Fold:
Amino acid sequence: MGALVWGLIGWAVIRYRRKDGDAPAPRQTAYHLPLELLYTLVPFLIIGVLFVYTIKASDAMVEQEQDPDTVINVIGQKWSWTFNYMEEDNPEIGTVAHTIGTVESLPDLYLPINKRVRFNLESADVIHSFWVPNFYFKRDVIPGHPNSFDVTPNKLGTFDGKCAELCGEKHAMMLFKVHIVTEEEYNAKINELADNGFSGEISLEKALEAVMPAAASEEHK
Ligand SMILES: [Cu+2]
Structure:
């Protein structure tokens, strides 16, 4: 597009440059009604078609299942993530387990492959943004305004996750790893967490205290 526009400009500049006496006048097409209608209608048509496809695609992306297979409550806190695996109704696990990340120890997130996962996002302090680039999707994590989205991971492997909202001094440290594993590995991992003392759900307050003990107790005074 750039080459075309610059090319046409260059052509017009050279073709119609002023020569003493006999500058060729370009053909005038002002008030050419059919041409002007075309200029107006064609872009409208293009945008209209793209609009319909965009709405369809974005509706499909934010669609949420009535009954997801796995629910993970995510907390963003300065400057890491807490993952609560809400598996109390899963007969293979039967409890809630959690991981609290810190700047010193980046958290890992485990997800079972081909299962519908619901992410509930909450912030303990400022606006963060939960982003796994391989999901082609990110969503803001806003204090006082819970957000959620569903995703069905369909590829085994380990992927990067990060915060996509400049949230403060150590924003760049809000990294985590997403491990997409088989259902058996997932159940084993969550059971292991629960057995090692990481059972129960971490609340917003607890997440804050865990990462910033001094600051959190200061705020509570
Ligand atoms: Cu952040």
